[in-house]
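Supplementary Methods S3. Complex input for the 2-OXO-4-methylpentanoic acid-bound model.
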Amino acid sequence: MAKKDIDWSQLGFGYIKTDKRYVSNFKDGKWDSGALTDDDTIALNECACVFQYAQTVFEGLKAYTTEDGRIVTFRIDLNGERMEESAKRLEMPEFPKDRFVDAVIQTVRANADFVPPFGSGATLYVRPFMFGSNPVIGVKPADEYQFRIFTTPVGPYFKGGVKPITVKISDFDRSAPRGTGDIKAGLNYAMSLHAIVTAHKEGFAENIYLDSATRTKIEETGGANIIFIDTDGNMVTPLSNSILPSVTRRSLMTVAEDYLGIKVIHREITFEEVKSGAFTECGLCGTAAVISPVGCINDHGNEIRFASGMDQMGPVITKLYDTLTGIQMGRIEAPKGWIFEI
Ligand code: PLP
Ligand code: COI
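Predicted complex, serialized as C-alpha cells:
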C-alpha cells in the first residue's frame, strides 16, 4: 500500500473522502458489533431525531506519523470518555469507551494511506459522531442511534499555521451556566455559526466568548480552550463548568508542570485582568487548533495586544507547542498511556 497522491503541505482544514469509515447501529437496546464500510452516505427518515431536535454529539482527534514511520493517536481514551459524558447529557446510549478506542484504531488503520507523512505539517483528523436515527416528533430522545467515524487529512485550522491571529470578544453567548457547554454536542456549534460568520466578515479569526451569566469572565472560543502566560511566566487557563474539557488543554497542563517546570494556574479569569495587561502571551488550544497563538484581542474596536506580538509565537507558548507536538509525533517520550499505536 502506498500513500495517496495528495499535496499534504497545501492542505487546509477541509473534508476529503477517505477509503473507509466505521459504523455501528443501536437498536432494541443494544449496539451491534460494528464494521468498516466504503459507504460515505447515510439514508435516514425525514423525521429522524437528529434532524428535528439536533440529538447529535461528536469528537475530534488526530492520527500522526512519527519520525520513524509509525502511526499513532493521542489520548483517545479521553475522547472516548468525553463522548460517553456527551451522550449521557443528551439522553443517548453510551458507546463504550473501550469500543470507541478499538473503533478509532480500526478506522485509522483502514485509512493508513491517508495519514500524512512526518514533517508535512498535515495530520489525519478523525471525527467520531453519534446521532438519533429513528423518527421522533414529540420532544423525546430517539430509540435508535448510529455511531460512525470518518477520517480526513487536514492541514492547519487557522490560515497561516502558527502565525498569531486576532480574535474578537463576541457579543453572543456560547453556553449557559447549567447548559451544554461542557459537552461536545452539535447544538453548541450550530448556535456559534452566526457568531463565527460575523467574526470572519469583520476580519477576525475566531470569537472569544465571555461567561453568559455575568459577561465578565473569559470562557473559550468556538473551537478551542484558551491559555495565557502571565508576567511571572505561569500558564493560566480558565476554570468554568460551561467550557469543553479540552484534551489538549489538560495535556498542556501536565506538559507545563512535568516537562517544563512551568507553574499552572487553573482559575476563573476576568476580562478586566486581560485588559489590564496581566498576560504576556495567549493561545488557543485544541485538536484542530493545536496551539494557535493570539497576538491581539479586539474588544469592540479596542485592541488588547500581547507582548509576544503579531509576528511569532511567544517564547513560553513556543516551548509548550514544541513539547506537546514532540510528544504527539514521537520525538519526545510521552507519559505512560498517552500514545496509542495503530
Ligand atoms: N473547545 C471547543 C468548543 C472545541 O470544539 C474543542 C475541540 O475539540 C476544544 C475546546 C478543544 O478540545 P480538544 O483539545 O479535546 O480537541
Ligand atoms: C477539534 O478540535 O477537534 C474540534 O472539534 C474543533 C472544531 C472547531 C474543528
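The longest strand covers residues 123-132. The helical segments are 49-53, 76-89, 97-110, 186-190, 193-201, 247-260, 271-275, 315-328.
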